[in-house]
């Protein structure tokens, strides 16, 4: 008999799946928070710039974000993911947040919203 045979089974609590209403409400809050983060060189938030490629929310409310930068050599490349994590972590319903920088596909101005293009006089 090994020591593990005497051990009680480990019970892990599985989160109930988020309802569509809960997911929609959390998504709205996530977008609101993403819009508080700005590229310091461009007076438009990162969401409207199209720098956010993907936001995954688990049933446990762990958030994983794939984002990019306007240029791989962006001077704030090392800091911006932390700014995004900080903005998301203020939401009490979010358990954790992880931000991954990705560069494929490369960002280009076509990813910007019409609102961002208006702000930058690009029409």
Please render the helix and strand layout as text.
Layout: H1 3-6, H2 20-34, H3 46-49, E1 52-57, E2 62-67, H4 80-89, E3 96-101, H5 114-119
Parallel strand pairs: 2-3
Antiparallel strand pairs: 1-2
Describe this structure in words.
With 123 residues, the protein is an alpha+beta fold. It has a single domain, classed as Fe-S cluster assembly (FSCA) (GMP Synthetase, Chain A, domain 3). It has helices at 3-6, 20-34, 46-49, 80-89, 114-119; strands spanning 52-57, 62-67, 96-101. Strands 1-2-3 form a three-stranded mixed sheet. The longest helix has 15 residues, at 20-34. The mean pLDDT is 88.
Summarize this entry quickly:
The protein is an alpha+beta fold and 123 residues long. It has helices at residues 3-6, 20-34, 46-49, 80-89, 114-119; strands at 52-57, 62-67, 96-101. It has a three-stranded mixed β-sheet.
What would the keywords be for this entry?
GMP Synthetase, Chain A, domain 3; 3-stranded mixed beta sheet; alpha+beta; 32% helix; 5 helices
* Number of DSSP helical runs: 5
Mean pLDDT: 88
Alpha-carbon distance between the termini?
75 Å
Determine the CATH superfamily: Fe-S cluster assembly (FSCA)
């Amino acid at each position: 008999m090994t020591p593990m045979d005497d051990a009680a089974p480990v019970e892990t609590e599985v989160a109930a799946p988020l309802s569509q209403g809960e997911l929609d409400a959390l998504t709205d809050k996530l977008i609101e928070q993403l819009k508080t983060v700005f590229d310091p060189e461009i007076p438009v938030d990162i969401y409207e710039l199209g720098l956010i490629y993907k936001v995954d929310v688990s049933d446990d409310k762990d958030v994983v974000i794939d984002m990019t930068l306007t240029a791989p050599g962006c001077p704030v490349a090392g800091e911006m993911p932390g700014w995004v994590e900080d903005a998301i972590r203020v939401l009490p319903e979010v358990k954790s947040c992880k931000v991954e920088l990705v560069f494929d596909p490369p960002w280009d101005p076509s990813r910007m919203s019409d609102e961002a293009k208006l702000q930058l006089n690009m029409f």
